[in-house]
Amino acid sequence: MRLSEKVVLVTGGSRGIGYAIAKLFSENGAKVVITSRDPQRLEKAASEISNSSGVVADIRKRDQVRDVIKQAIEKFGKLDILVNNAWIFPRIKRLHEIDEGEWNKVLDANLTGQFRFTKEAIPHLQKRSGSIINISSDAGLKAYQGFNADAYSASKAALVALTKCWALEYAKDKIM
Length: 176
Ligand SMILES: NC(=O)c1ccc[n+]([C@@H]2O[C@H](COP(=O)([O-])OP(=O)(O)OC[C@H]3O[C@@H](n4cnc5c(N)ncnc54)[C@H](OP(=O)(O)O)[C@@H]3O)[C@@H](O)[C@H]2O)c1
Hints:
Helix content: 40-55%
Order of helices and strands: EHEHEHEHEH
Number of helices: 5
Number of domains: 1
CATH class: Alpha Beta
Bound molecules: NADP nicotinamide-adenine-dinucleotide phosphate
CATH architecture: 3-Layer(aba) Sandwich
Oligomer: single chain
Largest sheet: 5 strands, parallel
Strand order of the largest sheet: 3-2-1-4-5
CATH superfamily: NAD(P)-binding Rossmann-like Domain
Distance between the termini: 21 Å
CATH topology: Rossmann fold
Number of strands: 5
Strand content: 5-15%
Structural class: alpha/beta
């Protein structure tokens, strides 16, 4: 119960790694908010994770992101930890085969989405020396032969850079 005083928001916590992260936080005593676009899957996940609450939201919609933060604060009174986990994976194609719409769709979810959540969360994290955990990928650190998911790799590399930027920018607020 090391985290019994903590309130954690996990984006994309309805399944996969996000679900596992949310469950682990909960098992260690934290109160957890999870998000996804699918109400049924989210409700099921929230019912399986103690002390959790699901908020339906598309990470690409600023108003919905704001609403997640608002609902988290209304329900649990504060926010200590943001886990930027939600993502989409593009169709495997070489760079010259994708159009700008496909490129932008991936960056909107995987990069601008993390910006949206982090921007809205920071005023709350500043109040209590909070933490931001960004889930990137080895694809953001190195290139793999035949991987052919450039927008994904770019979004994850950018998230590694942003993690360093935010660490420096918000160290004075004791956000880690
Ligand atoms: N899986 C891997 O092999 C792997 C490897 C390296 C890194 N990672 C990283 O680990 C993280 C989790 O991966 P995963 O494989 O566990 O993911 P996953 O099982 O595909 O789950 C993705 C989550 O993100 C949510 N999501 C997707 N689009 C969304 C949107 N527009 N708005 C809100 N939520 C959205 C999904 O819910 P809905 O679809 O219902 O909205 C779901 O909850 C990602 O950041 C990924 O880059 C994964």
